[in-house]
Amino acid sequence: MDFQFWLMAFIILVVMEFLTMGLTTVWFAIGALAAFFASLFGATLWIQIILFLIISLVVLVVYRPLAVKYVNSRRTKTNIDDLIGKEAKVVERIDNVNQIGRVVLNGMDWSARTTIGGTIEVDTIVKVVDVQGVKLIVEPVISDGFMNFGKNTVQDNI
Fold this sequence. Notes:
The protein has 3 helices and 8 strands; from the N terminus they run H-H-H-E-E-E-E-E-E-E-E. With 158 residues, the chain is α+β, with helices and mostly antiparallel strands. It is 39% helix and 27% strand. A 5-stranded mixed barrel has the order 1-2-3-6-5. It has a two-stranded antiparallel sheet with strand order 7-8. The chain is rod-shaped, with a radius of gyration of 29 Å. Helix 2 runs antiparallel to helix 3. The chain has 2 domains: 71 residues, no CATH class; 71 residues, CATH 2.40.50.140.
Protein backbone atom coordinates (compact mmCIF):
# COMPACT_ATOMS: atom_id res chain seq x y z
CA MET A 1 0.00 0.00 0.00
CA ASP A 2 2.88 2.42 0.75
CA PHE A 3 4.29 2.15 -2.77
CA GLN A 4 0.91 3.17 -4.25
CA PHE A 5 0.83 6.31 -2.11
CA TRP A 6 4.34 7.35 -3.19
CA LEU A 7 3.57 6.57 -6.83
CA MET A 8 0.42 8.73 -6.69
CA ALA A 9 2.33 11.51 -4.91
CA PHE A 10 5.01 11.37 -7.60
CA ILE A 11 2.44 11.56 -10.43
CA ILE A 12 0.50 14.42 -8.81
CA LEU A 13 3.67 16.41 -8.14
CA VAL A 14 4.94 15.93 -11.70
CA VAL A 15 1.57 17.01 -13.13
CA MET A 16 1.58 20.07 -10.85
CA GLU A 17 5.07 20.95 -12.07
CA PHE A 18 4.02 20.71 -15.71
CA LEU A 19 1.00 22.93 -15.01
CA THR A 20 2.95 25.62 -13.16
CA MET A 21 6.43 25.34 -14.74
CA GLY A 22 7.75 27.20 -11.72
CA LEU A 23 10.33 24.72 -10.41
CA THR A 24 8.27 24.30 -7.25
CA THR A 25 7.20 20.67 -6.97
CA VAL A 26 9.79 18.79 -9.05
CA TRP A 27 12.08 18.50 -6.01
CA PHE A 28 9.39 16.79 -3.97
CA ALA A 29 8.52 14.55 -6.91
CA ILE A 30 12.11 13.27 -6.88
CA GLY A 31 11.83 12.65 -3.12
CA ALA A 32 8.53 10.79 -3.67
CA LEU A 33 10.20 8.67 -6.34
CA ALA A 34 13.00 7.75 -3.92
CA ALA A 35 10.43 6.83 -1.24
CA PHE A 36 8.51 4.79 -3.84
CA PHE A 37 11.59 2.68 -4.61
CA ALA A 38 12.36 2.32 -0.89
CA SER A 39 8.82 1.01 -0.32
CA LEU A 40 9.27 -1.51 -3.14
CA PHE A 41 12.37 -2.85 -1.37
CA GLY A 42 10.48 -3.21 1.92
CA ALA A 43 11.63 -0.15 3.86
CA THR A 44 9.48 0.85 6.82
CA LEU A 45 7.14 3.83 6.59
CA TRP A 46 9.42 5.97 8.79
CA ILE A 47 12.43 5.29 6.58
CA GLN A 48 10.33 6.16 3.52
CA ILE A 49 9.23 9.47 5.05
CA ILE A 50 12.76 10.36 6.18
CA LEU A 51 14.13 9.40 2.76
CA PHE A 52 11.46 11.54 1.07
CA LEU A 53 12.31 14.56 3.24
CA ILE A 54 16.10 14.25 2.96
CA ILE A 55 16.16 13.60 -0.80
CA SER A 56 13.68 16.42 -1.46
CA LEU A 57 15.67 18.88 0.66
CA VAL A 58 19.06 17.92 -0.80
CA VAL A 59 17.83 18.11 -4.38
CA LEU A 60 16.10 21.43 -3.65
CA VAL A 61 19.19 23.01 -2.06
CA VAL A 62 21.76 21.63 -4.51
CA TYR A 63 20.01 21.69 -7.88
CA ARG A 64 17.46 24.51 -7.66
CA PRO A 65 20.03 27.34 -8.00
CA LEU A 66 21.47 25.67 -11.09
CA ALA A 67 18.04 25.07 -12.59
CA VAL A 68 16.89 28.64 -11.90
CA LYS A 69 20.05 30.00 -13.51
CA TYR A 70 19.55 27.82 -16.59
CA VAL A 71 15.83 28.59 -16.93
CA ASN A 72 16.25 32.34 -16.34
CA SER A 73 19.12 32.59 -18.83
CA ARG A 74 16.60 32.45 -21.68
CA ARG A 75 14.37 35.16 -20.22
CA THR A 76 14.59 38.55 -21.93
CA LYS A 77 15.14 41.38 -19.51
CA THR A 78 13.37 44.63 -20.34
CA ASN A 79 15.25 47.02 -18.04
CA ILE A 80 12.21 49.30 -17.96
CA ASP A 81 13.32 50.72 -14.62
CA ASP A 82 16.47 52.06 -16.29
CA LEU A 83 14.30 54.64 -18.09
CA ILE A 84 13.46 56.43 -14.83
CA GLY A 85 15.58 59.55 -14.49
CA LYS A 86 16.45 59.76 -18.21
CA GLU A 87 15.60 62.76 -20.36
CA ALA A 88 13.30 62.65 -23.39
CA LYS A 89 12.03 65.13 -25.97
CA VAL A 90 8.33 65.90 -26.39
CA VAL A 91 7.24 65.25 -29.98
CA GLU A 92 3.48 65.61 -29.42
CA ARG A 93 2.02 68.04 -26.88
CA ILE A 94 1.37 66.28 -23.56
CA ASP A 95 -2.12 66.93 -22.22
CA ASN A 96 -3.42 64.69 -19.42
CA VAL A 97 -7.01 65.94 -19.76
CA ASN A 98 -7.23 64.91 -23.42
CA GLN A 99 -5.05 61.81 -22.88
CA ILE A 100 -2.51 62.77 -25.55
CA GLY A 101 1.23 63.18 -25.64
CA ARG A 102 4.31 61.47 -26.98
CA VAL A 103 8.02 61.64 -26.26
CA VAL A 104 11.11 60.16 -27.87
CA LEU A 105 13.59 58.42 -25.58
CA ASN A 106 16.59 56.45 -26.83
CA GLY A 107 15.20 56.64 -30.35
CA MET A 108 11.89 55.06 -29.33
CA ASP A 109 8.48 56.73 -29.38
CA TRP A 110 6.51 56.50 -26.11
CA SER A 111 3.09 57.65 -24.92
CA ALA A 112 3.56 60.15 -22.14
CA ARG A 113 1.63 61.86 -19.36
CA THR A 114 2.78 64.58 -17.01
CA THR A 115 2.94 64.78 -13.24
CA ILE A 116 2.41 68.55 -13.17
CA GLY A 117 -1.01 68.78 -14.81
CA GLY A 118 -1.67 71.24 -17.61
CA THR A 119 0.24 70.71 -20.83
CA ILE A 120 3.82 70.39 -21.96
CA GLU A 121 4.60 71.67 -25.45
CA VAL A 122 6.53 70.09 -28.32
CA ASP A 123 10.36 70.28 -28.16
CA THR A 124 10.36 70.44 -24.36
CA ILE A 125 12.98 68.32 -22.64
CA VAL A 126 11.37 66.21 -19.91
CA LYS A 127 12.60 63.77 -17.29
CA VAL A 128 11.00 60.35 -16.79
CA VAL A 129 9.79 59.95 -13.20
CA ASP A 130 7.74 56.74 -13.54
CA VAL A 131 6.61 54.09 -15.99
CA GLN A 132 2.98 52.95 -15.90
CA GLY A 133 2.31 50.19 -18.39
CA VAL A 134 3.39 51.57 -21.78
CA LYS A 135 3.27 55.23 -20.71
CA LEU A 136 6.12 57.30 -19.42
CA ILE A 137 5.22 59.69 -16.63
CA VAL A 138 7.32 62.81 -17.13
CA GLU A 139 7.96 66.29 -15.80
CA PRO A 140 9.79 69.21 -17.41
CA VAL A 141 13.51 69.44 -16.77
CA ILE A 142 14.48 72.31 -14.49
CA SER A 143 17.56 74.16 -15.71
CA ASP A 144 19.06 77.25 -14.05
CA GLY A 145 16.08 77.45 -11.71
CA PHE A 146 13.54 77.64 -14.54
CA MET A 147 11.18 74.96 -15.80
CA ASN A 148 11.38 74.29 -19.51
CA PHE A 149 7.92 74.14 -21.10
CA GLY A 150 8.99 74.39 -24.74
CA LYS A 151 8.88 77.64 -26.70
CA ASN A 152 7.14 79.55 -23.88
CA THR A 153 9.41 78.84 -20.95
CA VAL A 154 9.02 80.47 -17.60
CA GLN A 155 12.31 82.29 -18.26
CA ASP A 156 10.95 83.78 -21.52
CA ASN A 157 8.06 85.32 -19.64
CA ILE A 158 10.26 87.22 -17.19
